[in-house]
Amino acid sequence: VAGFFVFLFGLNVVQASGYDLKNMDQAYAEVARTVLADIPEGASVAGTGSLVPQLINRHRVCFVRWQPGKLCEWGAPEFVILDMSERRRIRPSQEAKERFVRSLMEDLGYTIVEEREGFIVFHGQERLGPEYRPTLSGRSF
């Protein structure tokens, strides 16, 4: 009986639209791996959803919240990695993404250090403190 339930669970995961484990874009994965390899081990990082799990071994890491002028619960990290072609169901509009990128550069002083096939890597000074934290209610998309 337990084996049957494991089989049904596996079948459900394989057939679920958000978990297409059979279809993996090798080119996308290789570019993501290359971009992430360029980030120093001790650096704090904010990234978009699909990149963050690969950064989980770092001391300070967070998801990008797409709020202009705000990044992580603890402040602003040294690096920000955006996947502008991210394939999530709920994603910010192109206008919201552009507004967020402008905010990173103008409001927080980040500079673009790498652009590669839809990925943008920003570098700036790590800033800890409440003035750089996102508000709980704000969603810009």
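(ticket continues) Second input and output from the same batch:
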Amino acid sequence: MVDVIAYRGIWRSSHEQNEFLAFLQAFDRGVGVEIDVRDLAGEIVVSSDPPAAGALALQKVFALYKGCNSSVTLVLNVHSCGLQRHVAHMIQEFDIRNYFIIDVGVPDALGYLSHGLIVYTRHSDCETAPSLYEESQGVWLDELRGPWITSQTIASHIVAGKPVYITSPELRGRPHLPVWEHIKAALSSTSGESKRNGNIGLRTEFPDEAKGYFGKK
């Protein structure tokens, strides 16, 4: 089935994104989350924009996650460079196991990999040859400029043994159902062995709709 990832938590207004309550609501509903990670004055915080004083500490989100006794997926979108050691320490401290890191540059990705962390490479219409494909544990699919993802694109990574997570097009201001249909087609076309070797996930602003569309993971 499809692993639904709530983009910056479950929220109604944009100012609620990346807030403690948005993550709590996602965990309570059994939905994974994407978390924007930056640093501020020596602390690792949650913020999509350059952070200001009072930004939510990543440590509080990890503590919430563990307190909810949750096993859903955490996607760490790390916007700042050079945080490998700090992120690795926090993941170890809270024993976070079901996670992966996205959208880091190649030098930073090498650092995360050297710390034994789980990194997904990005495959997009602008990055047709994903960097560090063999070393990365999975693939992040994105349509940055326009539609290009097909069921064959998704299935090719699954057959290669790579979990594949897709950015839902509403995040790029486009209708989401065409890509959701491709995901369903990929699920139908891949063999049972390939499905066991790789997962399919969806990063979306519509987690409740996605759970209904694909069925609960």
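Agent notes: Strands lie at 2-7, 32-40, 43-46, 56-57, 74-78, 99-102, 120-124, 138-142, 164-167, 200-204. The longest helix spans residues 177-189. Closing as not reproducible unless the customer responds.
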